[in-house]
Amino acid sequence: MAVELWIDDGNPWYLSPDIWVVPSDDPGDPPGLPFANVSAYVWARVHNRGSTAVSNATVRFYWADPSTVITPTTATLIGTSSASLTAGETKEVLCVTPWIPSFVNNGHECLIAQAFAPSDPAPPQGPNDPFNVPADRHLAQRNITVGAAMARMARFVHPFRIGNPMRFRTGEVLVRARRAPVEILKPLLRNLGLRELPAEAEGFEEFALQPYRCGQEIHETGKPDLRIAVSPGHQEGLVLVARVPDRFKAGTAALVLIEQIVEDKPLGGMAVLIVPAKEDRTTVKKG
What we know:
Blueprint: E1 5-6, E2 19-22, E3 41-48, E4 54-64, E5 76-85, E6 90-94, E7 110-116, E8 139-142, E9 144-149, E10 155-163, E11 172-180, E12 199-200, E13 207-211, E14 225-229, E15 235-243, E16 252-262, E17 265-276
Parallel strand pairs: 9-17, 12-16
Antiparallel strand pairs: 1-3, 2-3, 3-6, 4-5, 4-7, 7-8, 10-15, 11-14, 11-16, 13-15, 16-17
């Protein structure tokens, strides 16, 4: 007899369909994307896949600035809720504390949810250890940004941070950006407030990663793989730079995954869905 709490991962694991945002003062409104300085509510879907009921399981909700590596130190607690689940039950749990996203990336920060109970405790974790989402069923993460790009701006820029956890005892970090099919967002469609998946955008084949600090020049050239020196226990700023095609058609999008790689596996990652800005969309006439 055991309690077994889960919050499901996505594919890739940092795109959990079990975490979503309601950008409204009413948590019962439809899900959607958060906006900077606009009150929102966060939900998590918790599963008890054990054979024993659990009373008052703790569900914690965190946000963090866009980053490939998130630790308890770099994350901010939004609030804590509780939930009671029978064996085999799934329940949608509301974080009763409203969340007001900050200005960073217009509010599109990373969200983490964690469910545990005295009868099913979360694994021990140090304050500077990364949340090990793939290895811990108690944890899930949703790390996606939807950014608008205008063809007349020539390039799309997405700032984020990387980290070098102390426990790896290395002075170098590998970060990789890659184009991914928009189709992988299908499980998140409703949670993102989208009615349908956009088609694949053409021309988004040139993108690169580069170090960045506020005020530095951003270059259009570079490589999608970047090895960079980072002191253990520290973070560094990077940007994803993508060349925007001259014709960015309405109803299309480009999905780029950014992952920090350790031993050929992603230690952390984020998704960036690039869509055409409303005032800049190219409409295709049907003949």
